[in-house]
Amino acid sequence: MSTGIWHQIFNYDDYGQLLALVANSIVAAAVLGVVGGLISTFVMMRDLAFAVHGIAELSFAGAAAALLLGVNVVAGSLAGSVLAAAVIGALGVRVRDRNSAIGVLMPFGLGLGVLFLSLYKGRAANKFGLLTGQIVAVDTPQTAWLIGVSVVVLLALAVVWRPLTFASLDPDVAAARGVPVRALSPVFTLVLGLAVATTIQIVGALLVLALVVTPAAAATRVTASPRLIPLLSVLFAVTSVVGGILIALGGSVPISPYVTTIAFVIYLACRAAGAVRTRSGWARRPPAAVAD
Amino acid sequence: MTGPMIEHPGTIAPQAAPAVLSLTGAELRRGERVLWSGLDLELRGGEFIAVLGPNGAGKTSLLHAVLGQVPLAAGTLLIGGRPPRRGGDLIGYIPQQRAVAPHTPLRARDLVRLGVDGHRWGLPLGGRGLRRRIDELLTEVGAHAYADMPLGLLSGGEQQRVRIAQALATDPALLLCDEPLLSLDPHHQHAIVDLLDRRRRARGTAVLFVTHELNPVLPLVDRVLYLAGGRFRVGTPDEVMTSSVLSGLYGGQVEVVRAHGRYLIAGAPVPHHPDPTEGVPT
To answer: Which residues cross the membrane (chain A) (predicted)?
Structure first.
C-alpha cells in the first residue's frame, strides 16, 4: 500500500514522452514564474499578501462561472480578478479598511465559486484544478492567453517600477517629490489582479500565495538590495513552478504540492541564511568611520 | 548642484536674493475650519524658521501647502518666485523618524537613491555617476559607513542622517522638516541639528522646521512662527516666546520662563503633547 502511494507521487516511467506533452505548460509556467517573482517583490513592499488571497478567491469564482457557461476559463478568472482588484482598491485605502474589506470579499467569492462548480456538470478534474492547480488544462490557446496577459503585467511593472517602489516604501517623501502615490495604488492592484488570474491557471486559487508572496518573502530574508531581491525572487519562483511541474510529471497528484513544497523549502533556507547574516552584523561597517 | 561652489564675495547681498519662500495673506482651511489666515512670511536663503504650535494648529498643513499638495484658501504662496508645484526640485523634505520594518528591502543608499530618481518612470537602471552622487550625499551627512546596511537595522539617528541625505538629493533651496527630531535621544538630536546648521551656512539653504520642541533647535532659530487657535505670531524667539504673546494666541493664561537658554512653558490650555509620556513641552 505504501509503495502504491509512493508510486502515485513519484513515478518516472515514460518521462521523455510526458515531457513532450507538457512543453506548453513548462513555457507558461516559466513565464508565470517571472511574473510571480517580480510582482511578489511589490506584494511584500506593500504588505498585500492578504489582498492576493482575496483576489484569488474572486478570480476562482470568475473561472468557475466561465467553466459553467462554457467560455474561456482564463477570461473568466481575469474578470473575477479585475473585479476583486477594483473592489479592494475602492473599499480600502488604509491597511485596516483594506484588510477587513478583503476579509468580507473573500468568503463571498469562494462561495460563488462553489455554487458555480456545483452547478457544473463537466469533468470533475476541471473543478478541482481551479482550486488546487492543474497542468493538463494548459493547452495552446490558453498558453497564448497566459503569455499575453503576462507580457501586459511585465510591461506595466517596467513603467511604474521606480515610482511604485518609492510610493510603496516611502510614501510621504514620494508624495513630496510629486509621485502620484494615491493613483499608483489602484494601478498596482489591477496589475496584481492580472498576475493572480494567470497564476491561478497553474497552481490554483488556494495556492497562489506560493508564487506571488513566498518568492520575495524568501529573497528579502537574505538581501535588502532592490536589485537582488527581484532577481532572486524570480529565480525562486521559476525554480518552484518549473521544478514542481517536472517532478509532478512522474506522479498522478496535482502539481501544486510540489510547487508549494519547493517554494517553502526555499523560504526556510533563506530564513536560516538571513538569520546567520543578521547575527554577523549583515554588512560590514568600516570601523574608522564613526561619524558622531 | 554637483560642481564646486564658486564664491563671489559681495556680489549678492543676502537681502537682495529673492525670497526662497514667500506667503502673502495666506489662508488655509481644513473643511470649514480656518487653520490660519492673513499669514505673511518671507523666508530667505540660509534662514531657519521654527514652526511651533499645538496639534491641529496647521503646522503640517503648512508644509503640505508649500509642497503644493494642498491649495491655499486665499492669498499667495511663492517658492523661488513661482507658485508651488508637486515634486519641484527646489524643496527637500525630511519626515519624522518612523520605525522601519525589519525586512524592508531598502539599504541606506537605496533610500537616498529614491530621492535622486525615485519619482521618474521606468526601471531603476543607473550607472557609476548615480552611484558616485549617492556616495557624495551619504558622505556629506556622515552616513557613508552604513551605506549598505538595511534601513531597518539602523538606529533612529542614523536613519535621520540618511533622510537628510535623501532630502538633499536635488540640492534644494528649501528644506522642509516635519518633526525630524521626534523620538531621537538628545545626542542624536544634536547631531541632526548640527547637520542642518552646517548645510544652511555652507549652501544658503533655507529651513522651515516644524517641531513640538523649540529648545533643541534654539541656537539655530532666526525666527519663530507660532500657530495656535487660528492665530499666529512671527518673530524672533525672544519676541514670540513671551507669556503675553502665547497667552494671546491660546486665549488663556500661559507662563513662559526662560532659564539656562531654554524656554519652559506652563499652562497652555491646549496640550502640546497628546501623549503624557512625552516630556514637558517647550
So the answer is: 20-43, 55-88, 100-122, 143-161, 187-216, 228-249, 255-276
Beta-carbon separation of B105 and A220 below 8 A:
yes
Comparing CB atoms, the residue among B124, B148, B167 nearest residue A161 is B124
Tell me which residue in B103, B114, B115 faces A220 most closely, judged by beta carbons.
B103
- The dihedral through the CA atoms of B263, B269, B271, B277 has a sign that is positive
Is residue B217 within 8 A of residue B44, CB to CB? The reply is no
User: What tens digit of pLDDT does each residue of A33-91 get?
Assistant: 999 999 999 999 998 999 999 999 999 999 999 989 988 888 899 999 999 988 887 77
Q: Looking at chain A, how many residues does it have?
A: 292
Q: Per DSSP, which regions of B31-173 are E strands?
A: 33-43, 48-52, 74-79, 91-94
Domain B16-266 has CATH 3.40.50.300: yes
* Lookup: cell for A158: 517596467
Residue among B178, B176, B149 at smallest CA distance from B162: B149
Taking alpha carbons only, the member of B140, B185, B139, B138 closest to residue B162 is B138
Q: Which residues of B touch A (CB under 8 A)?
A: 67, 69, 85-88, 91, 93, 95, 103-107, 110-111, 114-115, 117-124, 142-146, 148-153, 161, 166-167, 176, 187, 191
Which of B103, B135, B185, B190 to probe by mutation at the A interface, max A CB count within 10 Å?
B103
Query: What is the DSSP secondary structure assignment for residue B28, as one 8-state letter?
Result: E
ipTM score of the complex? 0.87
What's the CATH code of the domain at A134?
Answer: 1.10.3470.10
Domain ranges of chain B: 16-266
Tell me how far apart the alpha carbons of residues A61 and A200 are, in angstroms, rounded to a whole number: 11
Interface test with B, best of A46, A157, A168, A173 (most B CBs within 10 A): A173
CA distance B152 to chain A (A): 10
Q: What are phi and psi of A144, to 5 degrees?
A: -60, -45
User: Which residue in A174, A223, A290 is closest to B145 by CB distance?
Assistant: A290
Measured between CB atoms, which of A45, A178, A286 is closest to B87?
Answer: A178
Q: How far is CA A66 from the centre of its chain?
A: 21
- Residue B235 and residue B242: Cα distance in Å, rounded? 11
* Rounded-to-integer distance, Cα A237 and Cα A265, Å: 12
A101: containing domain = 23-207
Which of B118, B123, B167 comes nearest A166 by C-beta? Answer: B118
Q: Do residue B151 and residue A158 have CB atoms under 8 angstroms apart?
A: no
Amino acid present at B75: G
Q: What is the pLDDT of chain A when averaged over all its residues?
A: 86
What's the predicted TM-score (pTM) here?
0.89
The number of distinct structural domains making up chain A is: 1
Decide: A214 and A236 in contact? Cβ < 8 Å: yes
The grid coordinates listed for B48 are: 531657519
Residue B250 has pLDDT above 50, yes or no: yes
Q: Scan residues 232-271 of A and list those with Cβ closer than 8 Å to B.
A: none
